[in-house]
Design a protein that fits this description.
6 helices; 0% strand; Cytochrome Bc1 Complex, Chain D, domain 2; mainly alpha; globular
């Protein structure tokens, strides 16, 4: 029983240690244009989280030029970010954490 508990705790700590921190991805790639709750060059994450789904956020990060019209924007100033899948997932989850703020 103790062995199973130790293995479970080890696996849980290993998996959480390897999960990307969405805040760090945000600070690295997004902070220049977006802030969490205040308007900067782009809309704040609190506004994005209220309007967009996880999938929409992912799609916009991948290809903003293809998505801006479907979002009702007249243009896009967002550059294409070369984020890998884990980074996109982490930042999308971080953005959505502001849904109720």
């Amino acid at each position: 029983m103790k062995t199973k508990l130790l293995i479970t705790l080890f696996l849980a700590s290993f998996l959480s240690a390897n999960e990307l921190d969405g805040k760090k991805v945000f600070e690295t790639y997004c902070w220049g244009c977006h802030h969490q709750t205040a308007v900067a060059f782009g809309p704040p994450f609190s506004e994005i989280a209220k309007k967009r789904s996880y999938e929409e956020i992912q799609a916009y990060i991948i290809d903003p030029k293809a998505m801006y019209k479907s979002f009702g924007y007249k243009r896009t100033a967002m550059t294409e970010l070369k984020l890998n899948e884990d980074e996109r997932e982490a930042v999308a989850k971080y953005i959505l954490s502001y849904k109720g703020k």
